[in-house]
Amino acid sequence: MNLIIFGPPGAGKGTQSNFIANKYKLFQLETGKILRNEVKNKTELGIKISSRMNEGSLVSDEIVSKLVEKFISNKKHKNKFIFDGYPRNIPQAENLNNLLNKYEQKAGLVLKLSVSLDIIKKRISGRSVCSICEKIYNEYFNPAPLNSNCCAPRFLKKRSDDTLNIAVKRFQNYEKNTEPLIKFYKNLNLLKVVNGESPISQINAEISGLIDSNEGWL
Ligand code: AMP
Question: Taking the model in full, what pTM does it have?
Fold first, then answer.
């Protein structure tokens, strides 16, 4: 069974998806990270999308859809996906349904992480990522361990779109484009809302409970 996670920027999607992927041996398909790597490596695609990424706008549905299909069509990950950052709007959600049908797969559970704008501002301004192991930290809520070799301060990097102005734009984008997914997945009887403001371990436990009690979970 596949799982979908969505929520505003800074809601903790990446942290929670990573936890779920490890615990349930799922493949974390994180569109934002894949697109950021394209920009970092200055590929043809990366050059095309860099300005939209840097200003906090969504990349075109067509580009993201092609990218997602490449992964969904890979039999190795059949029914073992956690979709993190996709879909981001109704056309993408419809496309994902079509792709899952096409490759004989199903979405079993959709998690929405709820977080207020005030908390998001703190989450985003405090967020950094270890450039060695890619672990996500937050100087206010989840600081990197002081005695770690890998995640030492010199290896912690900020995302270029994690500035306050761009964060607000990304949040507005989320409200306009992504919030309609709540109704979409409610109608499919797949949606569960999780309070993304709780401590990380509590969210981990709540999500595990939802997955474990989901009928038909592989
Ligand atoms: P994220 O890491 O999920 O916050 O995504 C970072 C950026 O990648 C977004 O602000 C968008 O520019 C782009 N992006 C990621 N996923 C999508 C998607 N499903 N559709 C369009 N753009 C996306």
Answer: 0.89
In 3-state terms, what secondary structure has residue 117? Answer: helix
Work out which ligand 1 atom sits closest to the CA atom of 9. 4
Pair 106, 135: CB distance under 8 Å: no
Burial of 136 (0-12, 13-18, 19+ CB in 10 A): middle
| Residue 35 identity | L
Cβ density class 20-34: b for 16+ within 10 Å, e for less: bbeebebebbbbbeb
Torsion of CA 138, 13, 27, 148, to 10 degrees: 10
Nearest-atom index, ligand 1, CA of 52: 12
pLDDT tens for each residue of 39-63: 999 999 999 999 999 888 999 999 9
Measuring CA to CA, which residue among 180, 215, 201 is closest to residue 93?
A: 180
Mind listing the pLDDT tens digit for each residue in 62-97?
A: 999 999 999 999 999 999 999 999 999 999 999 999
Which of 49, 53, 92, 94 has most ligand 1 atoms within 8 Å of its beta carbon, as the pocket-test mutant?
Answer: 53
